[in-house]
Design a protein that fits this description.
The chain is mainly β and about 140 residues long. The chain has 1 helix and 11 strands.
Length: about 140
């Protein structure tokens, strides 16, 4: 599970010590569509909990012979461990595979402390895995 692009553990998990404000929660599992939700913590609502039931329709399609192994977006950086945003939303840390990124054009931003931010756009096509590889500069 990712919170604001940072790995916070495997589900079930309790994430503590988040600051008040808006946070993006992402849950990914092989064979399942990516689940994402934005939550806002405040003095009036300092904690939230929820259950997520992933829809395994993607897994069933893969089992039926649909070409799922090559789809999505692969993002790598040198050095690894950089934060990734796709279309302005935190997506994780490199190396990163996003199997359920929608078809179309997407902006990708990669940042790592001590390095210059790196930005590009990528086209994701049905049935193909798009790849982004960044060599970060100091």
């Amino acid at each position: 599970m990712l919170v604001d692009g940072m790995v916070r553990g495997e589900t079930p998990v309790a994430v503590r010590d988040l600051e008040f404000g808006t946070h993006t929660i992402v849950i990914e599992a092989p064979g399942y569509p990516r689940w994402q939700q934005t939550v806002t913590l405040s003095a009036e609502r300092p904690a939230q909990s929820f259950e997520v039931a992933l829809d395994n329709a993607g897994a069933a399609a893969g089992a039926a012979g649909a070409p799922s192994a090559g789809v999505g977006l692969q993002i790598d950086s040198r050095p690894a461990g950089a934060q990734v945003w796709v279309d302005g939303v935190p997506a994780g840390v490199t190396p990163l595979l996003l199997p359920s990124v929608g078809v179309g054009n997407h902006s990708v931003r990669i940042e790592l402390a001590g390095y210059q931010p790196w930005t590009t756009s990528v086209a994701v096509v049905t049935g193909e895995r798009a790849r982004v590889a960044a060599s970060l500069e100091r």
